[in-house]
Amino acid sequence: MPLDLDTRTQLLDALARFVAERLRPIEAEVSEKDAIPEAVLAEMKALGLFGLSIPEEYGGLGLSMEDEALVAMEIGHASPAFRSAFGTNVGIGSQGLVMFGTEAQKARWLPGIASGETVTSFALTEPEAGSDSAAVQTRARKEGDHYVLDGAKRYITNAGRASLFTVMARTDPDRKGAAGVSAFLVPRDLAGITVGKAEKKMGQQGAHIHDVIFEGVRVPEENRLGAEGEGFKVAMQVLDRGRLHIAAVCVGVAERLIRDCVAYAGERKQFGQAIASFQMIQAMLADSKTEALAARALVLETARRRDAGENVTLEASSSKLFASEMVGRVADRAVQIFGGAGYVADYGIERLYRDVRIFRIYEGSSEIQKLVIARETMKRGG
Ligand code: COS
User: Does the beta carbon of 240 lie inside 6 Å of ligand 1?
Assistant: First the structure.
């Protein structure tokens, strides 16, 4: 159920204050230290951010997709690294469990995920299975009432802090591709799991990705998520939803960049006047604003349709494609409007320019989104 308008306004206002007073002032420090202060993570937990999408009966806020998208847009007004801290709990790390978990699995894990006490990670990508995610080689061999996991996962967000992984592994080695893959809930404290060092990245410092190695990890059968061979569908449905969430974050970052541009262009004087009075600056603002509005409308309409129970695989991919490409263009124009200051670290614009680059790659690259959109369009006959 969507929130009533008063509650929604209160929630978004509280988040806007949190972004302005607690997150924006420490963006540079988080980037420099490559870490979010524990006190701020605790405040995020207290605000319910880790449990936005977890049903209320398990301690979450149980938001509709539309409300979650509005929250993601608001949080997107701060550095995207903050969103990443709770992003896996809200999205790819929890939604397999919410959509496909048994009652016992949900009761065991969802309350901790909702409070943020349990941090989750989604372990699909491997060194040889990126865009071709059905090519996973991690093996899950059945041995009595356990599965034994062996394999390597790559670029796994929040793995360093995770206490629960959703792992896609091949249960049937004779079946190539999607059909042989199953999903598992794997607690971090099982023997045989090694998490690699945090990778050095182009942007979003404060958010971390790691390799995760599974060596003879014995996972009880009751931790399998969905039926054997259904793991790929679990992953794809989780990603359908995740892509929409990422698209909403892109809209938020674009809105923030546009506001920063308007403020700067109003102050910065050249040729005796504020650069905002120049039509070539105005044209860049107009392009950015129009594209951000279009992305916002697309994301919210898709979220509402998902809330109404429609299949939005196509629209979620369209939202991710359009919004992630859009924010790349908006960030590029922001650097141009700021000029030399856009290239200098102190103003934070170059940081956002780097931060947004990953949106076109993770949770399915733009090329993969086009593939999905084309396929679905043909399936629907137009
Ligand atoms: N919802 C439900 N089921 C889906 C689905 C979806 N969105 N997408 C695919 N499936 C099902 C298909 O219906 C098919 O099932 P059947 O064989 O029973 O018909 C099965 O899954 C295999 O699908 P498909 O044949 O489309 O698989 P492909 O190997 O062609 O791969 C792409 C599909 C490329 C779209 C997929 O691998 C992908 O999304 N790759 C990118 C992965 C990604 O986003 N990685 C980011 C890392 S996670 S942060």
Answer: yes
Nearest to 234 by CA among 111, 376, 303, 133: 133
Contact 232 CB / ligand 1 (< 6 Å)? yes
Nearest CA to ligand 1 atom 13: 233
Q: Is 372 in the pocket of ligand 1 (CB under 6 A)?
A: yes
CATH fold of the domain at 233-380: Butyryl-CoA Dehydrogenase, subunit A; domain 3 (1.20.140)
CATH number for the segment(s) 5-115: 1.10.540.10
Percent of the chain with pLDDT over 70: 100
- Alpha carbon nearest to ligand 1 atom 20, residue: 178
User: Is the four-CA dihedral 132, 128, 81, 201 of positive or negative sign?
Assistant: negative
Query: What's the confidence (pLDDT) of residue 1?
Result: 80
Out of 133, 166, 237, mutate this one to test ligand 1's pocket (max ligand atoms within 8 Å of CB): namely 133
Mean pLDDT value across residues 197-225: 98
Q: Average pLDDT in the 271-293 region?
A: 98
- Is 90 exceeded by the pLDDT of residue 2? no
CA dist 296 and 253 (Å) reads 11
On whether the pTM is more than 0.90, the answer is yes
